[in-house]
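Example (one chain per record):
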Amino acid sequence: MKKSDKKRIFGLLALLILLMSFFLFYFSTQKNKSAERYRKSENEQIYLTQKIKHRKAYLNKFAFQQALSSPNLKVRKNIIQMQAASQAEKAAKRLFPILLNYNNSDEYNKRAALAQNLVTKNVICNKSLFGSDYIQGSHYVDSSELKSQYRGLKFASGVINGTNLPFLVNVTFISWFFGQNKAVTDDIYIGTYSYAKKKITGLRRLNNLYQSNLNTTLLE
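Predicted structure:
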């Protein structure tokens, strides 16, 4: 092969490498720009979503305040009824996991302190709900190795009377003693929620609706 042919080939190879490097750089740059545009678009979408969410919350609050100021007594009562029912359900869904979740005596006896922002003092003092497990010189929950797991509830409210809303809950939980099968239980509780105090002011277990042994494999 002539020397001039070799130079031509090397020249073509050098040009090809240069072109490939240019295209690789170009496509890499375009890819980065595309990724940046995507990130920018995604951030803008998040910003718009948050803006719409805040605007919706503001309009809902404004509409609620307007309804509360309505000269129509029926409208005002309906709004308060809806607001009280929503607050009472949220309070119940926070309270019953505290009431029914425990694995030892320490957790059982701390329930009253954990629930004090959700209920009034008379509910805390109700020994059938928040009583101590210390009986005749020993802690019942630890000695029997009693455990309880909250599973969920169904909530229903009555008609508000002044600022007091009656409600009913169907609570499901699982409990068991050491060496015994787990049992699923449905209990009915009735209570009263104060719209003025923002707390549950009355609560008592009305009835046991259902109780049955539970296959432990269902809890795995």
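Caption: The first helix runs from residue 3 to 68.
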